[in-house]
Amino acid sequence: MPSPRATPRQKSLTSPHGLNPALQRMDYAVRGELVLRAEALAKRLPGDYPFSRIVYCNIGNPQSVGQKPLTFVRQVVAGLTHPELLKGDLPDDVVHRVEMFLGRSHGIGAYTESKGLPLVRERVAKALRKRDGVSADPDTIFLTNGASEGVKVLLQMIIRGPDDGVMIPIPQYPLYSATLTALQGRIVEYYLNESQGWRLDVNELSNRLRSAREQGVTVRALCVINPGNPTGQVLTRENLVEIVEFCEREGLVILADEVYQKNVYVDEKPFVSFKKVVTELGSSVELASFHSVSKGLFGECGMRGGFLEVVNMEQDALDMIYKTLSVSLCSNIVGQVAIDVMMTPPQPGEESYDLFVKETSDIYESLKRKAGKLSQALNTFKGVSCNPSEGAMYLFPRVDIPQKAVEEAARRGYASADVLYCIELLEATGICTVPGSGFGQAEGTYHFRTTFLPPEDQIDGVVTRMRDFHDKFLVKYS
Ligand SMILES: Cc1ncc(COP(=O)(O)O)c(C=O)c1O
């Protein structure tokens, strides 16, 4: 006789309230509905569409749209992965770098210290001293899986309960809103001023902080993205000083997202790090800054290399970052090595130097040309205005969407009329962008975010197809 079985219990995750509601509420537009539609559409191509492929302008993932990897970083990673290659004809400086790593690690197949290899942290500190002209301590540097991991660790530390909040820019990169939602912390929005080139105004910070406090939020940190995503503005040193002084006065931690520090296209606004300003002012403000190999001129998004540097934090805080990172043992070693190469590239006189300079300047000059070309073109579209991209990899044009389109979007249940705009743009042209509503925007305004990463010879085609679509959209909903 088979033994009687107990009545099965309802499955845990499929029960009506089985999933974490905070994660259900969490949204990440950059990989959201538009991308899913684009992927579905790609599978139907070539079909009955006026285009033969999807142009992915939705995400800052340069190598996915044709950017070539830099030779030096790939050679170092190759040599480390398979040291037999060192017997071949790799350049001397590659061999030297690989031997240095092999001599001070157990190779890429072994876990490292949870903060990352001491060798890399020492060399990052040295490179930061050179960048900023102020001291840097390897013990305050933590290597992470991309900048994202560092941001998440800091936000986890900061949000202690449901009344704690963090100020984030609007528009923002949705890593911040998504993580804060998941942590059930409070999002305190501050708006960048679009009519002044997405300026970060300290009066706006003050007003938003005051009103958040009046509503019972314990505001603990301010996040600044410089250069901005999706907005592309670069902050001046004067602006950084004001922000540091504001945070010091108000007791806020600064979370400085500086992953686009090498993507600055305007000579009059060189990148200045928060670390430099905090140190030069002698400020006691607590700061965490984030950097990554995904952006800049490396574009090695898949290597997941990042680091965070903290300043003015007590040992308790450093210990907690360490403990949190140690739960996942260590960041991946390829990413750690890529960070080393990015922070200390080949130097003059070394064998790889000329090629490295050529490859990086080609990428930089091309990004700069594409940024200018696309923003100038967008500004000639009827009802579109677009601040130029001073930095980063994106444009965030504002679009006057006709009332009928607003009504149609509402009828279809879209979160905003720019969702309708981006869906129709995708379906008419194959160009995949992200609706402005995914980043946040001032009430009653509509935007979309586009990268300017596709190869230069595709940019003219992108502009023509966008313009054609835009004109038809206006007629359709007039
Ligand atoms: C402003 C900003 N911060 C952080 C990240 C995350 O980068 P990573 O690939 O290093 O995790 C991105 C990625 O697009 C970004 O735009």
UniProtKB/TrEMBL annotation:
The keyword Transferase applies. InterPro entries: ALAT1/2-like, Aminotransferase_I/II_large, PyrdxlP-dep_Trfase, PyrdxlP-dep_Trfase_major, PyrdxlP-dep_Trfase_small. Its cofactor is pyridoxal 5'-phosphate. Residues 1-20 are annotated as: Disordered. CDD domains: AAT_like. GO terms for biological process: L-alanine catabolic process. This is Alanine transaminase. It comes from Grateloupia catenata. The keyword Mitochondrion does not apply. GO terms for molecular function: pyridoxal phosphate binding; transaminase activity. Homodimer. Belongs to the class-I pyridoxal-phosphate-dependent aminotransferase family. Alanine aminotransferase subfamily. Pfam families: Aminotran_1_2. The lineage of its organism: Eukaryota, Rhodophyta, Florideophyceae, Rhodymeniophycidae, Halymeniales. Residues 90-464 form the Aminotransferase class I/classII large domain.
